[in-house]
What we know:
Elements: H1 2-16, E1 30-31, E2 39-40, H2 58-69, E3 73-84, E4 100-110, H3 111-127, E5 136-139, H4 144-156, E6 160-163, H5 169-179, E7 183-186, H6 188-195, E8 207-210, E9 226-229, H7 230-237, H8 240-243, E10 255-260, E11 270-274, H9 275-287, E12 297-300, H10 307-318, E13 322-325, H11 345-349, E14 353-356, H12 358-373, H13 377-395, H14 401-406, H15 409-413, E15 421-424, H16 431-440, E16 445-449, E17 459-460, E18 473-474, E19 479-483, E20 499-505, E21 523-525, E22 531-541, E23 547-552, E24 556-558, E25 564-566, H17 567-574, E26 580-586, E27 595-600, H18 602-611, H19 618-622, H20 625-641, E28 652-655, H21 675-681, H22 683-689
Parallel strand pairs: 3-13, 5-6, 5-7, 6-10, 7-8, 8-9, 12-13, 12-14, 14-15, 15-16, 27-28
Antiparallel strand pairs: 1-2, 3-4, 10-11, 16-17, 17-18, 19-20, 20-22, 21-22, 22-23, 24-25, 26-27
Helix pairs in contact: 2-4, 3-4, 3-7, 9-10, 12-16, 13-16
GO biological process, one term: neuron differentiation
Domain AMP-dependent synthetase/ligase: 100-514
Protein name: long-chain-fatty-acid--CoA ligase
Amino acid sequence: MLLSLSNSLFLSIFFLLPLSMAKREKAKSTTGKAEGPYRCVENFDNLAREDFEGKDTLDKLFEHAVQRFGNTDCLGTRELLNEENETQPSGKIFKKSAVKLILGEYRWLSYDEVDQIISHLGSGLAALGQQPKSTIAIFCETRAEWMITAQACFRRNFPLVTLYATLGEEAVAFGLNECGATHLITSAELLETKLKNVLPDMLNLKHVIYVDNKSISRTGYPEGIQIYSMQAVQELGAKPDNLSVAVQRPQPTDLAVVMYTSGSTGRPKGVMIIHSNLIAGMTGQCERIPGLGPKDTYIGYLPLAHVLEMTAEISCMTYGCRIGYSSPQTLSDQSTKIKKGSKGDCSVLRPTLMAAVPEIMDRIYKNVMNKVQEMSYVQRTLFKLGYNYKLEQIKMGYDAPLCNMLLFKKVKALLGGNIRMMLSGGAPLSSATQRFMNICFCCPVGQGYGLTETCGAGTITEVADYSTGRVGAPLICCEVKLRDWVEGGYTSQDQPHPRGEIMIGGPNVTMGYYKSEHLNNDFWVDEQGQRWFCTGDVGEIHSDGCLQIVDRKKDLVKLQAGEYVSLGKVESALKNCPLIDNICAYANSDQNYVISFVVPNQKQLTTLANNNGISVAWEEICNHPAMEKEVLKAIKEVAASIKLQRFEIPVKVRLSPEPWTPETGLVTDAFKLKRKELKNHFQTDIERMYGGK
C-alpha cells in the first residue's frame, strides 16, 4: 500500500512539476559550398594552430601547465592492497584471468613531482645512449608511467613509437624492427609474456626498461640486451653529471610520435606525427569541451597508444585536470577483476570527464537494460515511464531534473555520479545507446570523428547538440570537403544533403606513414600548402554544417544482382538487437545474400534456450540450429523495425560462444572489427553458409 501510494505521489509530481532547465542552444554551424570546404564559423578565415601563444611544442605545453598548476594533483594510481584467486565450490582455482583485486585509494603525483620525474627519466635515457631525433618505443598498458615516459621523450626530442599492448608478438617485432628503436619501455608482464620469445628477433634493440617496481630474473634473455627498471633509470638520470648535460629541445616541425595503428586491415602502419600536428589537433578538441580546468577529473583507461586517449590526456594536463588511471577490467564495481563487495575505480575516483568507445557504451546500455527487465512490474513500468518522458524532453531541448534525482541516480553512480561530459570516438555510436547515456547518466555524450592520420581531430558535437547519429561540425583547426564517389552513389548533388568521401585538411593532418611512402597516396598538399587526408569514410553534411558518417568505402560490397550493401550500416543497425553483443556482416560479390557472425548475449540467449527446453552448455547452445533460427528471427524483427532493405538483412548466422576481444586478435583495441581476421577465423562457416561455393 505504501509503495503504491508513493508511486502515485511521484507520478503526480513528475508530470505536474514545471521544467527547470532552459531549452538548449543549437549547435554551431559551418559554411561552405555543397562539396565544401566546410569550416567552423568562429575560425572561417584562419584555422587555429595553437591554444596558447608561443606554446608550439609538447614540452612547452607541459612546462606551461607546471608553472600554472605546480602543487596540484596531476597523475593518480590506485594502491593494490591484495590479489585473490577465485575458487570454485569444488576448491579448484580459476585461471589467472579470474584473479580478483582489492584496491585502495588513489595516490597522487603533483605537477611538480611529475615534472621532476620526467627530468630524471629523460636524463637517464640520454645517459643510456638515447639520442635526440632517434626513435624510442613504448609497448605498455595505460598507466601513469606511460604518460611520464611520453613527456620525457617530448622534452628531449626523442620521437616516441607507440605500440598497442594487445598487439601480437609478430606485429610488435615488425613495428620495432621497422622503426629501428634501440630503447624500449614496457611492463614486467608484457616483457615476460610477449616480448621474451621475440627479443632475439629485435635487430636494433639494446636496452629494455620495465616500469614496475619489482625485480625480474634476467634468465633466458639475449645477452646483447640490457634490462633495467624505470626506477633505476631515474636514479641514473638524477646524478649531477647526467642532469647537467644540455637538453636538445624539439622544434614544431620535429617528429613527436610514430603511432602504429591497430592493424584492422593487415600489418600496423606507423603514422608520423610532428609536434605542430598534435598542438593544432588538441587546440580544436579543447575548444569543444566547455569549462575544462583544474576542477575536472579525467579517468584514463583506454589504450594510450590510441590517438583519442593520448590527446585527451595531454589536453587534460594542459588545463590542470587530474588524471586517475584505470582499466576496462577495474572500471566499475561490477568489473571482472574487482572483488565482489569492493569498489571499482569510478566509484573511488568519481571522474567528471570520460572518453569511451561505442563497444563499451553498448555494453553498459545492455547491462542496465537487462537489470531493468529483472525489476518488478511496477518498478519496470515506472522506469520506462520516466525514461520515455525524459526522452521527449531531451528531444525538445529540455531536461527532467526530478527524473534524474529519483530514477537515474543509481545508474549515474555506476560511473561515480559526477560525470558532466562523455566523448565517444573510434566508431559510430548507435542512436539508442547515445540516448540511453544522455538520459540515464544525465550528461551530454559528444560524438567525435577523427583518425590517427588527423591526430584524432576532425569534428566533435557541441555540448548543446542533443541530436543523435551525427559527429558535429568541423573543429577550429581543420576543414572538411566531400569528394563525389559515383560508384557508391554518393555525390555533392544528393538530396536533402550533399554526400561524398570525407577529406580533412589543416595543420592537424599528419606527415604520412613511416617508411611506407607507397601507402601515402591518401595524403596530399594543395596549392596553398595545406595538407589533406582522404579518409575512406563517406559523410553527409546537414544544413547546420554538422557531419554524419553514412558509410565506409571498404565496407561496401556489391552483390551478385548489383545491389550495394554497407556492412558497417548493417552491423550498426543490428547491434540494437537484445540477443546480440557483437556482429560481423559478410558478403561475397559472387553471392546474392548477406550472412553474419554473432557474439550472442549469453544471459539472454541462455534464457531463451531454457524456455525452448534446451538446457546444455553454452558452447552447445551456440551450435544448436534452433538457437541460430531464434537469433535470425530476432535479427529480422529488428531489421524490419528500422527498415533495412531486404538484400541487407543477413539470411544465415553463425553464433560465436567466445567474445571478440583485442586479445583474440579479431577486433582492434578500439573494438573495431578486423574483417580479414574474422573471415579467416570463420572460413569454414562461410563455405558452409554459402553452400560450399
